[in-house]
Design brief:
43% of the residues lie in helices and 18% in strands. By secondary structure, the protein is an alpha+beta fold. The protein has two domains: 290 residues, Ribosomal Protein S5, domain 2, CATH 3.30.230; 179 residues, GHMP kinase, C-terminal domain (Alpha-Beta Plaits, 2-Layer Sandwich), CATH 3.30.70.890. The strands form two sheets. Strands 1, 2, 3, 4, 5, 6, 7, 8 and 13 form a nine-stranded mixed beta sheet that branches. Strands 10-11-9-12 form a four-stranded antiparallel beta sheet. The chain is globular. The mean pLDDT is 94. It binds adenosine-5'-triphosphate (ATP) and (3R)-3-hydroxy-3-methyl-5-(phosphonooxy)pentanoic acid.
């Protein structure tokens, strides 16, 4: 068994399917981000389970591990007792407790008990993009730009506690839980430590446990798209039936029952992961807006409105779903076109990157033999229809999903040549925006627009799309990782 394990998991952006994906009838496009969480595990020495999040003030938790024997012979449940009861991180505690309990069920041997008895040192860090870097830049007298962000050291300290930190909406808790579960399962050799040997059942096992831990930590069974993105990277997501986890959402759950539920061969899991990634030449840019919205209360209000206005809501939901499907079909067709005729495809990118999307229909007429241009134009128009419907939802439910201030900013983004989709990710609100552009020339113009935008503070993020799910890493291949652990 190796003394050192490093596993990373990506953040997420939900491009289509906000609110709809809570319902198993609908799906949505989720993309993985290049921003990742890293869990590093060392075999310990002092018999304790020590967890360090060096980016945070007070980011240290220490636990004594004990085993509670359950009714069947050889079944143990792991108990963690904090050595400082005033400090808690329930996301981390729940994840370690249930991961070790399930590992013990699957690896009930002497070696496992000896390793746990020695203790573990666990380090958890997230790429800078997961947390707002506004304060760090202000302290350094740097403007809020891509190049200032690039000048910050990797995994930089945020000078506050986890409770106070401003998050950017990339799904820190899902990426953290996924990287922690997978690192523990790799460390104890339940799944292979070689990414090339990772099987689909390994991913399903980690997925099922991470969904359970995330739901228990959040106190509710959500749609789970963020954990799914942390496991599989970009894909088209259809949720699991909430009933799968409803009855085990309890800290006193019987581990043998839980162990059966999370088993990758169990037929109860009905989530669907359809492979997807952005076509070649598409580039995702993200920004967090210094305003903020409270997602859970937005979701609650939208769902209440839907329940009370079922007919009207179902028409909007179904129309949105059909537009969302058009977007994923178009993008998948573009990927196929690129594979079949690269020259023609690249020529379409070249033509469209220097023209505003509202003029692509004309360009398509002028180039009737290049149907990629017509597909770009149709994708832009369909996404505009999706935005219209989201604004209608906003008005009807009185929830600011695409509020007027965001509309103004997104419309301005669409005026830049090459932009094919500009929208509010996930639940929407004032939190964030995304832009997807063709080619390379649009990035600098978007940066100028965001920098000069006066109505709201638009903070660019460095993340791009990265279609990969969780990864087993070598510590020295990740710039800045070993440095930030103060080893
Ligand atoms: N670096 C970290 N180390 C340890 N725990 C962390 C870290 N980052 C996040 N967490 C855990 O995740 C919790 C935040 O979860 P929450 O569900 O509120 O965020 P989120 O919705 O995933 O946020 P966002 O999508 O904006 O990143 C924290 O309270 C903490 O328990
Ligand atoms: C509104 C919803 O569908 C998406 C929320 O997405 P985000 O956390 O705002 O990225 C809720 C959910 O699926 O958890």
């Amino acid at each position: 068994m190796s003394n050192l394990t490093v596993v990373s998991a990506p953040g997420k952006v939900l491009l289509t399917g906000g609110y709809l994906i809570l319902d198993r009838k609908y799906d949505g496009i989720v993309v993985g981000t290049s921003a990742r969480f890293y869990t590093v595990i060392f075999s310990g020495k002092n018999g304790k389970m020590c967890v360090y999040s060096p980016q945070f003030v007070d980011g240290e938790w220490e636990y004594r591990v004990s085993w509670k024997s359950l009714k069947d012979v050889g079944i143990y449940s792991c108990e963690l007792e904090s050595t400082n009861p005033e400090r808690h991180n329930s996301f981390v505690e729940i994840t370690i407790k249930y991961s070790l309990s399930i590992i013990s069920r699957r690896k009930n041997d002497q070696q496992f008990k000896e390793i746990v008895a020695k203790g573990l040192d666990i380090y958890i860090v997230g790429d800078n993009d997961f947390y707002s870097q506004r304060e760090q830049l202000r302290k350094k007298n740097l403007p809020l730009t891509f190049s200032s962000l690039k000048s910050l050291e990797p995994f930089c300290k945020v000078h506050c506690t986890l409770k106070k930190v401003n998050k950017t909406g990339l799904g820190s808790s899902a990426a953290l839980i996924t990287s922690l579960v997978s690192a523990l399962f790799v460390h104890f050799e339940i799944i292979s430590n070689k990414i090339t040997e990772t099987t689909n059942n390994d991913r399903k096992l980690i997925h099922n446990i991470a969904q359970f831990c995330h739901c228990l930590a959040q106190g509710k069974v959500g749609s789970g798209f963020d954990v799914s993105a942390a496991i599989w990277g970009s894909h088209i997501y259809k949720r699991f039936s909430p009933n799968i986890l409803k009855d085990v959402m309890d800290q006193t759950v019987d581990i043998s029952i839980l162990n059966n539920i999370i088993d990758p061969t169990s037929s109860i899991w009905d989530n669907q992961v359809t492979s997807f990634s952005l076509p070649l030449g598409f580039k995702l840019l993200l920004a967090d807006i210094d305003a903020g919205s409270h997602t859970p209360s937005m979701v609650g209000k939208v769902l209440k409105w839907r329940k009370e206005n079922a007919d009207q809501a179902n028409t909007i939901w179904d129309t949105l779903a059909s537009h969302n499907t058009t977007i994923s079909n178009n993008l998948r067709e573009l990927t196929k076109n690129h594979e079949q005729d690269e020259e023609l495809y690249l020529n379409a990118i070249k033509i469209c990157e220097s023209v505003k999307a509202s003029e692509w229909a004309l360009a398509a007429e002028r180039n009737p033999n290049n149907n990629n241009i017509a597909l770009f134009s149709a994708t832009f128009n369909t996404f505009q229809k999706i935005r219209e419907l989201l604004r209608e939802m906003s008005e009807l439910s009185q929830v600011p999903i695409e509020p007027p201030k965001q509309t103004k900013l997104l419309d301005a983004c669409n005026e830049i040549p090459g932009i094919i989709m500009a929208g509010v990710p996930g639940a929407g609100g004032y939190d964030a925006i995304f832009c997807i552009g063709l080619g390379n020339t649009f990035s600098s113009q978007i940066e100028k627009l965001w920098d000069s935008w006066e109505e709201m503070s638009v903070g660019p993020l460095l993340s791009r799309e990265s279609s990969k799910g969780y990864m087993i890493e070598q510590i020295n291949n990740i710039p800045g990782l070993s440095g930030c652990l103060n080893l």
